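Late entry, tetrahydrodeoxyuridine complex.
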Amino acid sequence: MIADEQIKELFVVACDYRKRAYSPYSHFQVGAALLTKEGKIYGGCNIENAAFGPTNCAERTAFFKAVSEGEREFSAIVIVGGKEGEKEEFCAPCGVCRQVMAEFCDPDSFYIILGNSAADCQKFLLEEVLPFSFGAQNIQGS
Ligand code: THU
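Prediction complete; structure with ligand written out below:
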């Protein structure tokens, strides 16, 4: 479970980081706020590249920041995104970001929260958005 107050705080951080998006090619701006089990929050934005392939999503920016600081345990991520200057649609994480989440998060307790605010959001468990995932269990012993 995640408290409403905590979700509000995560939306403030995700919206703030969305403003930092570097997206001159798609003009699609995404912000993410990743909550550790200890209650620390790491923000991230999408960072595009003229070569397109090196583009990093907001979610992965937040995860890589956190993991590189030594964090390994996470409880939730809030994602806010949409076309620059337009009313935001709910922004679902891409498949690559879901796979990164699966590397570090419990499928049956990690929350992915999409929306525009704590009052206008939808919560999903990781196992709902990435069923039958490939993980360490598949390569151990091989
Ligand atoms: N993007 C994210 O940052 N997160 C998502 O969940 C979906 C897509 C970014 C990548 C790219 O910079 C832009 O949105 C358009 O795909």
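The beta strands are 28-36, 41-45, 74-83, 111-117, 120-125. Will revisit in the morning.
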